[in-house]
Amino acid sequence: MRIAVFDSGMGGITVLKELRKSFPQFNFLYYGDTANVPYGTKSHTQIKTLVKAASIEIKNKKVDAMVIACNTASCIALDECCEVMGETPVYSVVEAGIATITRILKKDPSKPVLVLGTKATVRSKTYSTSLKNIFDVNIPVYEQECPLLVPMIEEGWINHPIMQQTVEEYTKAYLSLSPGIAFLACTHYPWIKSAFEKALPGWQVIDSAALVVETLAENSKTFLLENKTAGNIEWLLTDQEVFSPLIELSKEI
Ligand code: DGL
User: Fold this and answer.
1) Domains in the chain with CATH codes
2) pLDDT digits (tens, 9 = 90+) for 133-154
3) SS3 state at 225
4) Which of 69, 107, 235, 250 has the fewest Cβ atoms within 10 Å of its own Cβ atom?
């Protein structure tokens, strides 16, 4: 079983890490569009073109399924991706994210939800529109774009004091609310989860990786029962020479 994990850069490694932990017997193809990261500040037309090109390359690699480990790509170009992939199943972190938030809100719909993501993700309003449709009432959903975070993370400034300050700047307006769910709608952000936890005391900071794992496990039951040998990871980066400290971190997976 070969699963493609796609992201605009190296952020999708946070999802790959969870998948690899749960499915050591899968083979993975990690596709990072390192030549074009970040996607989050680009136009819809540009993002759609990039996602389509990546999907064609991934399709040619004959994978059994694809995980779009990029909220920006999922929010803007899921249809383009599914169209290219045809019958190959596509799992999106956005669908998993909405399902994760929904599960929590079903227990307490009064909790405020703060969705943190790139400009493109937030401006698409994919999360707030879907949640408002599901709950059919005016639930408190806020969306905050954090455009500086992806370049800083790709630069490796994960534990840099500037990172904490920047996260606090993006979140300070929500401190007047009662603590709720802070949803990391960008696969780069789990690298700096502790910065969000510190900036938003009492808030539950979550991402969608766990539900992607759950869905994939559900759909791969037979394979998982019958196969026990260890799988591998193939790396496909559109710019192999780009400098990213995250590429170094990826070697630890
Ligand atoms: N990691 C990506 C996401 O989940 C993309 C960030 C970017 O390329 O701007 O949105």
Assistant:
1) 2-92+210-252 (3.40.50.1860), 94-207 (3.40.50.1860)
2) 998 778 899 999 999 999 998 8
3) helix
4) 107
